[in-house]
Amino acid sequence: MRGAQAAAVVAALALLAGLASADEHNHRYQVGDVVTLWVNKVGPYNNPQETYNYYLLPFCKPKPADKTRHKWGGLGEVLQGNELIDSQLELKFRTDMPKRDICTMNLDDDKVEDFTEAVRRHYWYEFFADELPIWGFVGPPPEQTKGDSNVYIYTHKTFDIAYNGDRVIHINLTSESPQPLTSGASLTFTYQVQWKAVSIPFVRRFERYLDFNFFEHQIHWFSIFNSFMMVIFLTGLVSMILLRTLRKDYARYTARDAEDLESLERDMNEESGWKLVHGDVFRPPKYLEVLAALIGTGVQLALLVLSVILITIAGTLFVERGTIVTVFIICYALTSFVGGYVSGGFYARNEGKNWIQTMLVTACLFPLSCFSIAFVLNTIAIFYQSLAAVPFGSIVIVLLIWMFISFPLCLFGTVVGRNWAGAPDHPCRVKRIPSPIPDKKWYLRPHIIALVGGLLPFGSIFIEMYFIFTSFWNYKVYYVYGFFLLVFLILLIVTVCVTIVGTYFLLNAENYHWHWTAFSAGASTSLYVMLYSVHYFVMKTKMTGFFQTAFYFGYTLMFCLGLSIMCGAIGYLGSLAFVRRIFRNVKVD
Ligand SMILES: *[C@@H]1O[C@H](CO)[C@@H](O)[C@H](O)[C@H]1NC(C)=O
């Protein structure tokens, strides 16, 4: 029974990941076998998300228009705005084909207008054959044909396909014979196919799409080295603080004579530092429900990112369209247990009573925020008739995954967390009456500490941000997940160290409102990422139009939201461990 259930789940997941679609998946062909050429999307080159169905432009359509074959490539693929349609252009394995007509069309005013707009805006299109992407431009850019009032469109395509044994290795598409777009003219679109044997092994065929010079540039190594130095410096700083704060406690243990103890006591009273707040430091934070939910979600996200990176490295998933998104969604659903566990345990330890409400906030907070942003973007995409609009069915699948996997796991996690990790265990008792907080220097105010806190973590990742942004917005395949893993770990360490230092300063200023300060000190990293993304948008991309701008900032917002929750939670937990450690030996009368 259980086995059958497990098998069903695995089958469902395989279907989601698109593993179930057969024949193209073993990538082996006999001479003369059909290699399906799929058309995917078309759109302005500078706006990577502004994509349309290939046949939205008046290209030659496959003959029986009602029987077009679609390919279900998995959830991730659909969410990324792909829709593969069989072009019905004949492509036979290792069979050269001389020039052949696709169709002849009479250009009326509408078609001329559509094509002209497409060429003017540098429309390019994407095909797939044997899972290999093929790109081409609709027409030569108008700058190339300066001094000519006509706009041209390519009418001939040559597919040069390299094969090795029974495998397709790579495909070159050459667009030729540009013809002027004039109303009333008749254009004949043609294509031809040439096969060529090469000795490149199948396993290395994807290397062609990887930009080694870009990703393995010196600067990338240098930035890692730099961040590493920062880690060493910060961990040094934190150890020093720990030594300083704990030294006296150890001294107390070794101090045998009473005088020594007395002088120590005096020492402690003179010190107007963190020890004075022992009666308040474990006072439950304001908005405990929200903090618990954020911390649960943050830990979940950290674990999620870690697992996605490891799975991607293990399976070289970047070669397959959309798989990473699918893995991400499934891992999110599965890690919901951890989110619930951490949030439920934390909430119970702080003696919160509304645990159901907290669980609901934990389960909904991040998905709902992302869903709202995605909803707005989707509405825009539908309005523009773009392929980026997610079809209704896929939305339902995502909702079902959330409802039947993520939510129950979060609930279960909360219950387990409350029972196993929910006993209050603060090292110091909380005083009944809160102490007043002395007015201190401006730079020791919580919001300044919170704001400054994000600077160093941001500094440790911003070069990587450049690489990630460039792969996402400028058509580069991101494949250096080893770097990613390193930077991710560095980010976590730096965030923890910085928030610990911030918390230490705050407590020394006798301000015990450290909970939200620690969280915000980590979370403010994403504020700087947001600012950086504005810089990147203005300086490094040529995006135009409302559609692409909305998508750029919508996606960035989702990313920053996740980043802030994750960094905030990790920073907070680091500080919590620190605070518990330093107050453990404080003797209260
Ligand atoms: C495709 O283009 C590349 C680079 O221009 C070339 O090295 C390769 O031989 C071409 N392949 C075929 C099958 O023509």
From TrEMBL:
One of its GO terms (biological process) is protein localization to membrane. It holds the Pfam family EMP70. It comes from the Eukaryota. One of its GO terms (cellular component) is endosome membrane. The keyword Membrane applies. Residues 1-22 form the signal peptide. It is a multi-pass membrane protein. The chain crosses the membrane at residues 221-243, 290-318, 324-348, 360-384, 390-412, 448-469, 481-507, 519-538, 550-579. InterPro entries: EMP70 (IPR004240), MFS_trans_sf (IPR036259). It is found in: Endosome membrane; Golgi apparatus membrane. Coiled coil: none annotated. Keywords: Endosome, Membrane, Signal, Transmembrane, Transmembrane helix. The keyword rRNA-binding does not apply. SUPFAM superfamilies: MFS general substrate transporter. Belongs to the nonaspanin (TM9SF) (TC 9.A.2) family. This is Transmembrane 9 superfamily member. It comes from Chlorella variabilis (Green alga). The lineage of its organism: Eukaryota, Viridiplantae, Chlorophyta, core chlorophytes, Trebouxiophyceae.
